Amino acid sequence: MRLLTHNFLRSNVKGTENGYPLIIEVTTVRCEESPVDKEFLLGLIPKVDYSALRSAVRHMGPHCDPPLPDLPEVLPSAVGDVPSLDDATISILHRVLFDVYLVEGYLVCPDTGRKFPVKDGIPNMILHEDEI
Amino acid sequence: MSDLTGISRDSELNGKAHSSGCQEQASDFSSLSMKNFSRYGNIPIVETLESDISLDAKMTAGRWGGGISRNDEINSNPRRSSSSSSSSSSSSSTTTTTTKRMSRPELTGHASLFYDAREAKKYDSSSRMVGIQREITERAIELLKLDGRGTVDGHGRGSFRPSLVLDVGCGSGLSGQVLEEHGHVWLGCDVSRDMLNVANERMEHKREEAAAASHDNGGGSDDEDDEFDDDDDQDADDDPSMPDENNGTRRRRRPSPPTGDLLHHDMGTGLPFRPATFDACISISALQWLCYSNTRDQFPKKRLMRFFSSLYVVLRRGARAVLQFYPETAEHAILISECAARVGFAGGIVVDYPNSTKAKKHYLTTKGGVCVADDVDPRRAGGKSAGGKRGEKAPRKRKGVGKTKEWILHKKETQRKKGKDTRMDTKYTGRKRPTRF
């Protein structure tokens, strides 16, 4: 599971108010490399919840090889429709969003504490009928 | 070309039964207009004929080997035939029957139980199913209308821009692969873990391939590519007229790492995403599973409503969703489209190959907020224009009102015209009875 996916995921167990962001409990992490698509990334950034991404990076960072750098506090002019970013920031963001995978671990709902296991990189978000 | 062998076998079986019928149909429809409009519930339906499908018709004809087999083959719910080992005999017997007679895996139980490891492997390795899935996905992407013309991103840019697409019921990732070829980033969810494992393996494979290619400087990558997934590459090479060649070919030539991600999830429990996340949603042959209840505490309508309401929230404003499904009966199609309409989706069902029992494909094409189908004429779609407000009911007529003297006279007149025995009109006609009764 990518951090991009994590950024969009929320828990919808019965009794959650917000269910976002899911807390990451890391067991295994994998890093890949992929070509940067600047255009797409810039279009994506307004949709990404930056503070959730930062906290996810803080959870995942130490497990990566090499460790992920901390993201800047705030993105420069992130409020506008197309943020103006320098190439270094873009490549960091790309690496964080697309190239870091959570392979084994858990996603924990912040409200209810329900644990969603992640196995082979696929999070299991299946709910029982009484959890809806 | 391995899929052609399977097809020609089937078309031999079906060809005799169908050859005369097809020609008749063809001549019938040539005189009709291209589109027929009818209604399913509140949702307009667009029926397209073969020639109307702008997935290059020639390519289709070439691939499916002529008019007769085209009608028979594109078709048949691959998931259906997958369950019957004797698919050739069943397909020949079903040419004259309705879809109801076909075996439906939906009736056998939960999707995750049906698509076990064996079935998933079989599903993914059958080149016929791969072909059908690809065909449907191409059509769905076409219906999404989200290439670089700025129709979706709203910026009006001429350049191509990938979209973030949600694939509901992605299965073994066949549809995701097509999305990748079109250059989109996708997120698939499915209820069957075994199908997801197959998808995961494939993506793993692609990743290794991409890594190897980048190390080898991309020189011999083409050959490797062909070795690994020859089915898909054949398909891709067969149609030079694929949309967005620039991006598509570039991506295909040099194996790029997969752009998808997977999620194990049951769509009937509502999609677990933040609001306004996705640019589009597709679903290939999955929605009909929601029409069945596999356990006692599952109610199809409830699950459909949950799915659609969460889908509405998850999609960006104005984003489209194209959901292809195989309704067992007309009621299922109505149920699905009504649930979509109630949630606030506008749009309709596009039916491809409406005159074939097997090739018929239903695509629920919806858009949040505004009327989606530029090609659906709201007048002909039947009264309620798409985009009707939620919960707005026509005022109910009160009983008894309306039976005025004119109404009675008119009614008597029509009865008389029909030759029925009717009392003559007098000054007492339409008067109230005295109250002493």
Protein described:
The complex is a heterodimer of chains A (132) and B (437). Chain A has 132 residues and is an alpha+beta fold. Chain A has a single domain, classed as N-terminal domain of TfIIb. Chain A has helices at 3-8, 38-44, 50-60, 87-99; strands at 23-31, 100-108, 115-119, 122-123. In chain A, a hairpin with a 6-residue loop joins β2 (100-108) and β3. Chain A starts with a helix and ends in a 9-residue tail after the last strand. Chain B is α/β, with parallel strands linked by helices. Chain B has one domain: Rossmann fold (3-Layer(aba) Sandwich), CATH 3.40.50. Chain B has helices at residues 2-30, 57-64, 66-73, 78-83, 87-93, 111-114, 117-125, 127-144, 174-181, 193-215, 221-228, 230-238, 245-253, 300-314, 330-343, 405-417, and strands at residues 36-40, 43-48, 164-168, 185-190, 260-264, 278-284, 315-325, 345-352, 361-368. Chain B has a 9-stranded mixed sheet with strand order 1-2-8-9-7-6-3-4-5, sandwiched between helices. The radius of gyration of chain B is 26 Å and the shape is elongated. Chains A and B meet through α1, α2 and β4 of A and β4, α10 and β5 of B. Chain B: Pfam families: Methyltransf_25, WBS_methylT. Chain B: Residues 221-242 have a biased composition (Acidic residues). Chain B: One of its GO terms (biological process) is methylation. Chain B: Residues 393-434 form the 18S rRNA (guanine(1575)-N(7))-methyltransferase Bud23 C-terminal domain.
CATH topology name of chain B? Rossmann fold
- The CATH class of chain B, by name, is Alpha Beta
Q: What is the terminal-to-terminal distance of chain A?
A: 24 Å
Number of E-type strands of chain A: 4
Number of strands of chain B: 9
**Could you say what the CATH architecture of chain A is?**
Single Sheet
Question: Which topology of chain A does CATH recognise?
Answer: N-terminal domain of TfIIb
Strand order of the largest sheet of chain B: 1-2-8-9-7-6-3-4-5
* Radius of gyration of chain A (Å): 15 Å
Number of helices of chain B: 16
